[in-house]
Amino acid sequence: MSGNVIFTWTSSNYSSYDISLTRDTAADAWTRMRYAQYTVRDALLYDNIAIKVRTPGSATDNRMTYNVFKIKTKVGHTVNLSWTAAYFPSAGQYNAYHTYRENRTIFSVRSSGVSYGGYDQSTKYTYLTRPFASINIMFAIRDITLDDAGYYNGGTLAEAAWSGGGVILIVHNKPSKPKITGDFNVEANSYITLTCSSQSTSAPDYYSKLVTLSYTWLVNDTRISGETRETLRLYVTRNFKYNRYTSTAREKDLESDRSDPVQINPLYGPDILIITPQPTLNINDKLTVREGETIGPFVCTADCNPPCNITWRVKTSDGFSDARSEMGTLMQQVVQRDMRLFRCQANRGNKTSKQGFELDVQYLDDTLLYINGEMISNIELNENAQMRISCHVDGNPTPTIRLRRGQGYTELEQRQGTWLNYTIDMAQCTDTDTYRCRGTSTGFSNTDKVININVLCNTRFDKAGSFKSTYGSKSGTDTTIHVAVPIIAYPPPQSSDFKWDGPVPVPVTSTISSGDVSYKHVIESFIPVKDHTYFGNYTLSYKEQTVTRITINAEGEVASRSCFIAISLVSILLGLTWFMVAVFFVYNRRCRNVNQNSKHGEESTQLQTQNMTQHYDDVQGTVVDQLEAQNMTQHYDDVQGRVDEGNYTDLKEGRTVAEGDYTELGQCDPETPYEKLKE
């Protein structure tokens, strides 16, 4: 509950209302409101509050009045509360509610009697009205406490606790013990203002905030006449150092306890400050010291009367704070890195004299190493992901930071400062290594931090590795080919995930051996070559993905095949050259025939036709020869891997036979007619 009164009225279709408020006898001017509600704050300041409401264009006043019934008492007293109910229920019960920090039912009344939370009697409340069904509600509250303050009302429903009517119980209590504040150390022959701070402790709290206290000032236990305000202004002389000042606060006829006494101290000085022993400063006028070492004690003296308040202050990155000192002596201090300055300060009121010395605190922190913003010692990164290494070393003087990798400590970058950043935009397998950040500073031990970075690599063929793709071998029951395939992969793959596919299904035993780095491996396989059917192409796959291929030929076959391929390529090139020459010759001759005399046109035309036919035959034979050479080259590759001891090649007939199948590379007979060639 806030101590406010809220007036509400039935909303209509109007967008605004005109209201006039009267607090006790003071009436306000008419004001236009947009809502059908108005709140009067601090209602306890008034005895009654009336509101008049008009709709726009109407001269009719709708009036509502709220009487603020207040009963005041003191802690420990007994008080009677009463109000008139609108009606007493013929059936059911009438509840009395108390609302302060919570809303609660204190008793229920029926025509047959009263119930105090299920009991017939209460040590706190006594219902006084007779007969019970009377609308004049009256009851007593004994042994009043501050918790009994608040709003009392009644009705048949809980909403009655918030409706109009009822009584507000105000419980007075003496104000809190005052505290006198002010600048007690004052320059002689100047003014000083003392403040007596106290608060009302009466309840409810929305009443206590409205209370104005009065004050009494005393000097040496004697009341100062005419001083009833919260503040006391004095003209200070040197004799004031013998005076003791106290104060009390009063609410109504209740007076607070007396404040603790304060004493004004007229001051003069200070003058010269001396620090003993004198600190030894470097060329920058600072005292050089390492973090963790101790300095002091130092004694600070000043010429003051009366003696000044001499303290030591230390300045850090957060500002000034008190240093550990006694009677003007700075005690031995353990130096921290954020200490900047020690200062002796002699205070006499608003007169202050300061003397101090700065510190040059030297230190070197442990190295902090971050990978992609994380501080960890091991990490696995996806291939092509960004790799960002950050080294942080704090120190004074400014340290040197070096980033190195590998066992050989290959230096990647060096920087003087507190941060070193090194970025690889797309991490590769070759970036897998141990990385070391080191911070160095003269006079300090080096600080290192190491991180192991492993780049996750998909299994693939290592082009940079040693690899043989073609093998020549004999065949036999115990004959095997040792194949070593270099691969890149991290983490290392399982040998069972590799498979060899060749001309015939073969049981291949494969093992994996790791190289000098974690991502390089060698797949070692032993492929059997039991007979001629095992010769041919073999494919190594990893989880159905091709890694590489090899070829196993019969010994001596590799060289002959290479020579055949070279001869075929040369033949194709020569054939293309002669074809272009023939086309040019035909085109040139045709142009000359067009320019012949018209009288020989018919004869020339016939001759041209014969020449064209003849050249067509020449060209046709050339093209056929080239196509034959191409077909032989193409089919040679297909047949080469399938030739064995039971197969043969019939070069005289221009055909190749393998295991009963053959491909005939026919060449047109020179006598073949032109019409057949066109078909």
Distance linking N and C termini: 112 Å
Shape from CA axes? Answer: extended
For the sheet with most strands, the description reads: 8 strands, mixed
Mean pLDDT: 81
Q: Helix/strand-derived class? A: mainly beta
Total domains: 7
Alpha plus pi helix count: 4
Q: How much helix, percentage-wise, in residues? A: 10-25%
- Proportion of residues in extended strands: 35-45%
- List low-confidence stretches: 594-679
Radius of gyration over C-alpha positions, nearest whole angstrom: 55 Å
User: Using DSSP, what is the number of strands?
Assistant: 56
Q: Could you walk me through the main structural features you see in this protein, from its secondary elements to its overall organization?
A:
- By secondary structure, this protein is mainly β.
- It has seven domains: 5-67, no CATH class; 70-172, Sandwich (Immunoglobulin-like), CATH 2.60.40; 179-267, Immunoglobulin-like, CATH 2.60.40; 273-363, Immunoglobulin-like (Sandwich), CATH 2.60.40.10; 365-457, Immunoglobulin-like (Sandwich); 462-554, Sandwich (Immunoglobulin-like), CATH 2.60.40; 557-674.
- The chain is 13% helix and 44% strand.
- It is built from four helices and 56 strands.
- A hairpin with an 8-residue loop joins strand 13 (125-127) and strand 14.
- Helix 2 (557-594) runs antiparallel to helix 3 (601-640).
- Mean pLDDT is 81; it is low at 594-679.
